[in-house]
Amino acid sequence: MDSHGCQPTFADCSVLDAVTVGRRLSAAHLLFHTVVAELIGISASDYKCLRLIDRAERPISAGEFAARTRLSTGAVTGVIDRLEQAGLVSRVRDAHDRRRVLIEVPPDGAARLAAIFDSLRRSILAMEADFTADELRTVRTYLVRSVTILHRETERLSSVHSCGGRGR
Amino acid sequence: MTTVEPPAGADRAALDETAARLVELGRDLAAATMAFHTEVADQLGLSVTDHKCLDLIQRANGELTAGRIAEISCLSTGTVTGVIDRLERAGFVRRARDRRDRRKVFVRLVSPPPGELMSYFAGLSRRMEVAASRYEAGELHAIETYVREMLAALRIETTHIRDGVTSPGTG
Fold first, then answer.
1. E strand or H helix at B106, and its extent?
2. What ipTM is given for this predicted complex?
3. Which residues of A touch B35 (CB under 8 A)?
4. pTM of the entire predicted model
């Protein structure tokens, strides 16, 4: 058999495998975070909000929080109340503008979260030790591209949504 | 993977930094994936969990029982019953009894699969394939191995946490 025709090449197979495996990875991530939320004892949506606050580069105001989550300010107050009760976030006054209230993850809350993620973090770091620096760089560019594509596709979907694509 | 010579000094530090950045990137990927799935689920009027189970059913070609879905998804059987109820009401799946063993109930995708559902993923798959096609076979192999191992690590960790939650006297 020659290489003409429709026989998939090795590279073609790998492209498809990379996409399939990416889908499985997304499912595994979702399940991981589902059990983490269960472990902390908060709902999946409160947990998503907590991750947003935890990953923000600085403490954010309730207003910013509402904008980022697309939740109403009323719903946001409820989420922050529940997370505060669980000791996972705290409300602090902005040092520059005393009228502004910022939300942050307090040190003991951050330590609790870090402890849960630490075991996963360590096993991933151990697994990475088997790769060469070049291989890790390749993986890195691939993951960066994947994240960019996901963001763009999410935006595309949400713009269809808000233009009344489904008439909601 | 290829044999790795232990690098020293500055090389070691640079490699450690790349490795640590990759862990962060893994979290970014999870957040971006979650946002995408939330958006799709939102448009279908489903919760993220419902949507994820639908994805499982879709990939299993109709041979999944409710019990097996609970097993794969790490969700309780009670939760899975609720998920299937909602998916059935929304017209995505139906329950079908096994002809040989009437006690066994399979969850099958309603055919033809809702075009709407497929169209959400078509664009993403196409763009992901284009991105992947920029790499050589050896590079793709490294990416695939990396992702597979990350997947294994996530599954082990999920099981540990779940068992910690469900078994009394731990944590």
1. strand B105-109
2. 0.71
3. 150-151, 154
4. 0.67
